[in-house]
Write a structure and sequence with these properties.
By secondary structure, the chain is α/β, with parallel strands linked by helices. The protein is built from eight helices and five strands. It has a single domain, classed as Rossmann fold. It is about 50% helix and about 10% strand.
């Protein structure tokens, strides 16, 4: 069994939804979905917007990395990361050492529409749809070198169930990953 299949990509890519769908497909093989943001909230006992507001992005990123490392040590996990998690120093190396990584990729305009509609995104606070898309385009340029290290790239503009099916076809759970 693979230790961890990690889904990376920007906010709005559908990582959490796809992780749940993929874990459901692979439940018989013992996989479960873990949302890194939910694990952070559980450990901190506070919401992510509260951590950002009270402690700043740096404190959030330190906590995020600690929780990431804990999850990567587990087995049978479909991990939905936060968008910036794989971009921290050494994080993508740790992710790839634990198993395959999949970049859920979509255009900034698609991501912005999803993220703004979903709400609760501290990095998009106060931005309209066009401003969110511009921010995400700039962010993508910064994060792309890390995302490109993923084992495979999947088009995340498709419906989440189709994205999960694509990943399942690309990475059968019986493959001998770490």
């Amino acid at each position: 069994m693979m230790r961890v299949v990690t889904l990376v990509g920007q906010m709005g890519a559908g990582k959490s939804t796809v992780a749940r769908l993929l874990a459901a497909r692979w439940a018989a093989q013992g996989f479960r979905a873990v949302d890194l943001d939910d694990a952070i909230v559980a450990r901190a006992g506070r919401s992510i917007p509260d951590i950002f507001t009270s402690d700043g992005e740096g404190a959030f990123r330190a906590l995020e990395r600690a929780v990431l490392d804990d999850v990567l040590a587990q087995r049978g996990v479909i991990l939905a990361t936060g968008g910036g998690a794989p971009c921290q120093p050494g994080a993508m190396d740790a992710i790839l050492a634990a198993g395959p990584a999949v970049w859920l990729d979509a255009a900034p305009e698609v991501l912005a529409a999803r993220a703004v509609a979903g709400g609760g995104r501290p990095l998009l606070a106060g931005r309209d749809l066009a401003g969110a898309a511009a921010f995400l385009a700039s962010q993508r340029a910064e994060r792309e070198p890390d995302y490109l290290r993923a084992t495979c790239i999947v088009d995340a503009t498709a419906p989440a169930d189709a994205v999960a099916a694509t990943i399942a076809a690309l990475l059968p759970p019986e493959l001998p990953w770490p």
